[in-house]
Predict the structure.
Amino acid sequence: MIRTNATVCFATLMLELPLVLSSTASFSATDTARRCRDHRAFGSESPPAVERTSETPVSSSVHAHATKGETRDPLSGTYGNNASVCNSDEENGSSSANSTASAAGAFGAAPPAVEDISRQAQILQELSRKVINMGELRRLASQGIPDGAGIRATVWKLLLGYLPADRSLWPSELAKKRSQYKSFKEELLMNPIHIEQKACQSEITRRLEKSSLENHELDDGSQGFLSRSEISHGEHPLSLGKSSIWNQFFQETEIMEQIDRDVMRTHPDIHFFSGDSTFAKSNQEALRNILIVFAKLNPGIRYVQGMNEILAPLFYIFKNDPNEENAAFAEADTFFCFVELLSGFRDNFVQQLDNSVVGIRATITRLSMLLKEHDEELWRHLEMTTKVNPQFYAFRWITLLLTQEFNFADSLIIWDTLMSDPDGPQETLLRVCCAMLVIVRKRLLAGDFTSNLKLLQNYPPTNISHLLYVANKMRLR
């Protein structure tokens, strides 16, 4: 029964968006976004505070996380590439040499690697077909998508089911969905405060008038309103009842204020998302619009802190599409793709499901069992010897899809792999999380509770190609 009630979160959107759903937080940015919902999901089990200090990488070629306050563009070449020497236990293994995903060409840090050029040509060839072979596209994308000529934007839309495999249907589908999003905005966002206030007051007035007409004989001078003493508890502005119109209004106002705060704190070190420029302000407004529309169409979930961090990569990629028309409709496209992406993780955001077999606690337990299956020694040391509860680090990893553990460029490559899994992103995400533990196993086995917790809450820069290779090996076993 709990699941039936809780899954209403996406039932509303399924009814509203049949086209979409019928298909298939940096630590330095904000402490609040980092913890997401830890305070309410785990109560007294919240992890002890561990000071997050920067660690010197083993090699100067390892790119470090961006310095707090630094402003940059992920595509400007500031990041470096993910083929740098990794700070891991298996950095010199043959698996690293055989890994294929490279971001060097994608982010301008170095000339495109030969394999990137070859894979880009293969992806472009697949995208040029009248009917795209989704199996082949998933295989190519799982190795990393070279971010050139708007390839990643188009491939993500296909992988998320926003675009159909039949290219001839693209114009009509895009026009229909973009028009639908425009209607959502017109209905839900135009002067939202005034609309909510007017709707709230009108509904209360209607209820009071109806009640008065039903229960009172009107004198000639009466307007049919109840006296103050006759206003029911549900219609009182201070009522906390779930059916109270006023309570719903205040809750929505609080959610919009929270969205405003989180949007302002999204990637403050990247020009695209922050600053006083008109461009940055318009991007922030787009993020805000998407999150508010999503919250209103999904009353079972509404808005959960950290969703802005999941939304940001999608909007960034679509807004930077070299196709001007696609870039102009990036907000609408991002909304539908955000819905699709979150649909694979929706149970992690439903508070009523936290302790169920499909909630976030169960997901973290599955990660623990996956580690036990692949490296029982490490599992035993972490959970039995040093007593490092996986909730202390894995909660953020899973709910924010690793966006806070790696720099922006590397997180895009990880997402290429997550979206490419035909069985959905959840299992791939857990394998990547497990691989993150295995890669630093020597340091973990040598550490105690404090050092291990600090390491996992401040995951070191690593070779993303190697990380995904290790995760894929777990799938093949």
